[in-house]
Each structure stands twice: as structure tokens, then as C-alpha cells.
Amino acid sequence: MTMPMSPRLAALICVILWSMIAVVAKTGQSRLDFYQFLFLSNVISLLAVGAACLMAGRQVGRILRPGWRGFFLPSILGLLDCLFYLALYRGYARYNGVIVLVAQYSWPLMIVLLSSLRDAQWPGRVKALGLVVGSLAFLIAVTKGHLTSLNISDPISILIVLAGAFCFALMSTLSKNFVSDAFIGTFWLFFASMMGSLILMMSFSQIPHLEDVNLVSVLANGVFINGVSYILWVLACARGDASETAALIFLSPILSAIWLVMFFGEVFVPAYGVALILVLISGYLCMKPPKRVGSPAEHFLKE
């Protein structure tokens, strides 16, 4: 299959959709716990991706009989996805949201590290500088310029969120080798994630009542934010440079701040403007063509 759009454009669309997570989660989890919200979103995502497979010309038999590799390997990615959202929603439920956000968005940096280990290649000084600038931009945005305001009083919760972020970084990195068809692979990814979230919900929560479900939020989250966007994300990771793709993710929290201002009336502070400028600089540095600098062992010997 030839990709209908560039990896960067696919990743950018994902960034815009994922920046709406804060808005959808804020409205969708008012009467649901995170186990229920995750399960319902996965059910809708599975149906949405299944429909996308059919619209893309995939035959039902091919979707349901993808072969051992087409089923087993995407299922591993699906379990990693389930663990990521489990850790993320738990963090938001039990700890300070700003600190959870900082820990959550460590996964783009983890992608760069995992990609470097996989390819036996350092990311390069320019790209590394870009990632540092992107991290600084994010910290300025989420702390509104008060960088010293982060006070971690519950390290266990943060470690769980970081473990979840690692799961998503690993999922994104493995997508390059584990998924041969992004549509069918994403379908089975969500099937595995749905089954994992079902087991978790039945073990630690209960089936939600229909009157507790905000259908608009659940549908928006399942169809677009955690559904079709994953096809684009798998394509972007599989066809593009993972480090460059990860760099675009730093736009997501900045856009999230804008949506919160627009929809919930939060004040736009000058720190957001500074962060936006730094994000643009970070994107320019990180999307420069990578240069081969040798393996980590070679680099160490040269030092």
C-alpha cells in the first residue's frame, strides 16, 4: 500500500486530534471511571477502524483472517496501548494533572531513545537540541512559566505514568516492524486493547449504565481521537523517521492549552506564547534530515 499522505502530515493530523483529549476526557469522564471510559472508547474505536478498513477496500475475510503475524504482533501493540491509557487515566484520577501531563509527554523522548537503540545510531546533536527545546516549551506551557512549581509528592503514581509512556513509545517504535498493513493491524490493535480493557473493567469496576455515558464525548474519542488517528499514527511511524514524528507531538499540549482557553474559559498567559515560539524552533531542529554518526559503540570510541 502506498501512503496517501506524507508521514509528517499524518502525524500532524494526529497531533491536532490528540490535542482534544483534555477536552473530551474532561466531559466524558464526569460520570464514568477510567476503566469504563477506556473500554467504551475501545469498543467505538474498534468499530470505527473496522469501517475504515472496509472503506479502504479491505475484504472482510482478509480483515478477520490476517494470519498469525497479522494477528499476534498487532495484538502486542494493542496491549501496550491499553497499558498506556490505563496508567494515564489512573494518574489523572489520583494525582496532580499538570505533573501527570509532564510525565505523560516523556514518551516522544523515549521514542528517540528506543529508535536510537533499534538503529544503533545516535539522534545527532541538532535533533537532540531540538528535543530539549521542545521539552522546555512543554514545561513552560504546562507550568505557565513557573518551572519551579513542580512538586512530586507521590512518586509511585508518576512512575506508573512513566511506565505507561514507555509502553506507548515502545508501541510506536515497534509499529515500524510489526505492522505490514496499517488498517488491518490497527483493527487488531484495538481488538486486543478492547479485550484488555474489558478484563480490567470487569475486575476492578462494573459495566457502565447508559445514562452515565456522554455519547458525544465517547463517540468523538473512540472514532477520531483513539480510532482513525491510530491508522495515521501507525503509517507515520512505519513510513517516516520516528524521531521526527515524535518531535511534532510537542505541539499537542500547546494546542490543548488553546482548546482549554476556547472551550473552558481559561486565561491565556504570556508563557503560552513563549512556548509556541519554542515549539516552532524545536520542530525546525528536529525535522532536519538525520545524519549518520555511527553506532553508540563507535561514538564512544571516538570520544
Automatic annotation (TrEMBL):
Pfam families: EamA. It is a multi-pass membrane protein. It is found in: Membrane. Keywords: Membrane, Transmembrane, Transmembrane helix. Residues 9-142, 157-284 form the EamA domain. InterPro entries: AA-Vitamin_Transporters (IPR050638), EamA_dom (IPR000620), EmrE-like (IPR037185). The chain crosses the membrane at residues 35-56, 68-89, 95-114, 126-143, 155-174, 186-207, 213-235, 247-265, 271-287. Signal peptide: none annotated. Its main location: membrane. Belongs to the EamA transporter family. This is DMT family transporter. It comes from Candidatus Kirkpatrickella diaphorinae.
